[in-house]
Amino acid sequence: MALVKICGLQTLSHVEAVAKLPVDYIGFVFARSKRQVAPRTAGELIRAMRDASAGTASRPKAAGVFVNPSMDELEAVLGEAPLDVVQLHGQESPAFCSEVKERWPAVQVFKVFSLSGGASGEAGDGGAFRLEPYRGVVDGMLIDTFDPVYGGGSGKTFAWDAIPPYLEWCRGAGIPLLVAGGLQPGNVGELLRTYAPDGVDVSSGVETEGVKDLDKITSFVERVRNDV
């Protein structure tokens, strides 16, 4: 069954509602974004998430989204927000990812690679071969559509036929591959049926006028869980 990550939550009511759905990750954005949350706020939301999901069949993990953070920034955020996953969305090196894992062994590290939304198979990182240095130093991979301002979160899809080499590499490395970029309730089923990634990550595709929409979130989760 595909993993589901709902990213960019900012309010208590949304976090408590989504925590009761069969989702695997709830994402909190610490990078520069309209969805950015302060570390202390995120800490409060994460505690509410865990309280709300207590007793449910699935308890989501808290993922923090960063773009080229320093170790000091990570330390400051993790001191306030008890994250389960650090998701690195910039140009973080394998050595940096390894250091994060060494300093916070209880926290998983996901590395994001951004792909062009244009030509089929074009990858902004130079292709799947660039993944090899990350073998053994990350716990998951995510591919998203490149955005020149924020790195990701553009709400646009990339050419999905670029997925197979990444998926093959991740399967060989024994880590999950999540796909993001322009996903919404109407197309996530097609993605999963055609390319079968290990998980999906959505943010703007479950929003209405820039605000998280619980009906769209519920529909997205239902499509993943029931239609595939």
TrEMBL record:
Keywords assigned by UniProt, alphabetized: Amino-acid biosynthesis, Aromatic amino acid biosynthesis, Isomerase, Tryptophan biosynthesis
What is this enzyme's catalytic activity, as reactions?
N-(5-phospho-beta-D-ribosyl)anthranilate = 1-(2-carboxyphenylamino)-1-deoxy-D-ribulose 5-phosphate
One MF term from GO for this chain?
A: phosphoribosylanthranilate isomerase activity
Question: Which Pfam families does the UniProt record give?
Answer: PRAI
The enzyme's first-digit EC class, named in words, is isomerase
| Residue spans crossing the bilayer | none
Cite the N-(5'phosphoribosyl) anthranilate isomerase (PRAI) domain residue spans from the record: 4-222
Q: Coiled-coil ranges per the record?
A: none
Q: Which GO terms describe its biological process?
A: L-tryptophan biosynthetic process
- Which Gene3D superfamilies does this UniProt record tie to the protein? Aldolase class I
Instruction: Return the similarity comment.
Output: Belongs to the TrpF family.
- Identify this protein by name: N-(5'-phosphoribosyl)anthranilate isomerase
